[in-house]
Structures are given as structure tokens and as C-alpha cells.
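> Could you send the Ppx/GppA phosphatase family protein prediction when you get a chance?

Sure thing. Input:
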Amino acid sequence: MYAAVDLGSNSFRFSIGKHDGEQIRVQKSVREPIRLAAGLDNDGNLTPEAMQRALNCLKSFRATLATWDLEAVRVVATSTMRQARNIATFLPQAEQAIGYPIEIISGEEEGRLIYMGVANALAQPAERRLVVDIGGGSTELILGRGLDIERVESFSVGSVRQSLSFFIGGRVDAPSFEAAILSARSIFEDGAPPYHPQFWKRAYGSSGTIRAIADIIDKNGLDRTCPERGVTPASLDLLKERFIACGHVSRMDLPGLRPDRASTIIGGLAILIGVMRELGIEQIEPIEAGLRMGVMWDLYQRSMRHDRREESVAAFQRKFAVDVARATRVADDAAALLDQLKPASDATPRLLYWSALLHELGMAVSQTGHHKHTAYIIENADLPGFTTREQRTMSRLALAQKGNLRKVGEFLSDPDFARAVVALRLAIVFMHARIDVALAAPKLRMKNRIELELRREWVTDHPTLSYWIEKEQEHWDEVGVDLGLRYA
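Output:
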């Protein structure tokens, strides 16, 4: 049993699903229209009112989740939390309210999870398909075949902002609609060619927005050109005309349209019309699968020891021609050293290991200052499976691998991060000094100071070791931490 919580720009949702041997069957779903994107002020900060609405919802979710026997829970946040300038203030409060870590995922990672949910629901291994997901703050286009993703891109246009920007005060008229459609088309214009129909056989709409639009079209008899309930440009134009005839959001009383969706469905409709026109899509089929289903499949695969993050690290090693044997040696040694320091978080050893595997990828840019290049690439690259927070932690570890520690001094107050830095730096020292950690059996402790114990013969046999340790003592002393060396 798994739970996926989606903190979207329009709504907060969660789904609980059970894997039955073939599929994940949804046992319960909850949706709350929080309108987080509408709670961003002119400076890009979440307003106190928006944050309080969100916190109240998260506390309610926590109470409901606590009544289920769950193997794993994953909470992901999307576009608005990516954009909010005061997210550092809000995030700890939100995590306390929900009772789980919140992963702010990139648009590309959001797209991959959406596709994973759709592909597993369809179970058609040879089908070439396009998946379109229109969220409250962003729109994802994903091209793939079967379970394999070939291309994914996130566009910064969503139903909430489009509604607020073009349908001022809830007024709905033809000029506003055309302006909203043209705006959407301009955003998709440059990225459209790889998603044109010659590259796929069928197009699917995975978002609640597209499913809601399809339901309204069906219940109002607007699908005469496509009675099997697919959405076509003609049916979208008919729906647009119905909305224009209403004149205002408050008067949009159509069968199939929930009142809480009226204020954002117009922006979503403009985006869908824009993307279908720009890409030349003749029909798009709504599907009851998407981000939350993809999150649950990802949790299931992790439980089966199939972690996409491992694949991402291996792919980056190949891409940047990393010396895998050398990187693996550092990673193994760092893991062994960290184990002696007993980190509190289960996530720390994994993040340290992946950081070590990638610690020299900046060599592809320049050997001088390679740790800085490595840190920049890790933080800003598209690494499938990793959250923004994980990439930021790995980036800081990469930056801290050599040189002065003042550049990461503010993060060393986190005990687990400090332990990981000690383990990584010493693993690199031992690698440079040609010392096999498994044979040297160093003893490492860290409380108020770092205590390292080595056999004296290793210092004699490896003359550069004393130099490296002396440099380490200097660097740790600069940040007020004593590194003491003892000989067994």
C-alpha cells in the first residue's frame, strides 16, 4: 500500500494505491482546491493566507493518512513551490503539518513521473505516444514509447496564472480568449517541433484539467465530431463559445463543470487549444493516470530495489567520461567511513555515495577547480529521479570535497552533512595517497572534534599521507573544528 501526495499549484491531492501483482489499484483519493498559485503576491511570495490554507489542508491529509497501513508515503510539490521566493520559510511548516518530507521536484521530473503513471496504466509496450499534462502552474509534454521516455519538457504556463492574467475579474469574452490562446502558443512555439504528430501515434491528456474539459464536452453534447469521448479542436472551440456566451465565471453553469473549477478551467482550456493548434494535434484522449500514479509506481519500483537515481548517476558518468573505477573506490571508501560516524538519516549514505560517484565529473569542463564545476552541474542538471533538495545537497558535498570549508561553512551545522563531508574528503585523501581503506582499517569518530586513528606503518609506506592530513587539519581549523590524528 502506497500513498502519493501531490501539492499542485491549483489543488492539493493524495491517492492511496495497492499493488495487486500487475497494477496499482487506487483505494482512496482526496482533492482540495487550495489555489496556491493564486496566492503568490507581486513579489513572488506566498501570502500568509495562502500558506495558512495550505497548512490546514496538510494537517487534514496527515490525519487521514494516519488511518491507513502504508508501506511508503511520498509527498511531491510542483510549479508554485518551485517558484515561491519565500519557500524556505514555508517548507519547514508544511513538512511539520503533513508529517513527511516534501520533495520539490523539477518540471522534467514531474513530467517523467506523469509518464510513468500513464504508461503503466496503458500497458501497451510498443505504442508511441505523446502525453500532455496541464497543471495549475506549468504544462508538461512527454514523448515516449511503451515504458520508455524519449523526451520531456516543462513549460511555465498553467491554468491558474492563465486564468488570472487574461480573464480579469472573471470576465470571459472572445478577445480575452484569443489573447490567452496566443500567449500559450508563443510559449510552446520554440519547443513544439519534436512533439509534432509524425513522432507519435496517439496523444493522451493526463491532468485533471484535461479530464474535466473532456467531461464537460461529453455532458454538453459538444463531441459530435468525436463521439468516443476524445477531445478535438472542434469540440474545444464549441466549449470556448459556450464559455464566452456565459460572459463571466460566475455564470458558467454547465453540466459536468464543478463550481470550484470554473475560475481556472478557462485558463486550462486556452492552454489546451493553444498546444493542440501549435503541435497540430487532431485528437487527445483523457486518461485517469498521471503524477500521483507515477509516484506510487516509483515507490513500488524502489521497494523492488529498482531506483531510477542509480540509472541517472550511471548515465552522467558515461556522459562526462568519469573514471568509474576511481569514482567507485572513493564512493566505497566514503561509505565505509561514514558508517563509522553513524549518520542519523537513512538518506545521507545514499546521497554521499552518489555524490562520490560523480565527484570528478567537473573534470570534463576543467581540471582546475573541477569541484566547483561538479557542484554547478549537479545542482542545475536534469537528473531523473532526484529531487531539487537532493541535488542541492549533493552539489554542496561536491563543492566541499576539496579546498577550504568556509564555502560550505553555514551547512556544517547539520551534523549529517558534516559527517558526510568528513567521510568524502578523507576518502579522497586516501585515494590520492594510494591507501586501501579496507586494508588500512582507519578508525574515525566525530563528536565535538574529528578523531582519526591510523596504523603508523601506513604513514611510513605512503609519504604523501602526512601532507594531505596536515592540509585537512588546516581546513577544518578554519571553520573551528579540530581534526586530531592518532597512531595505533
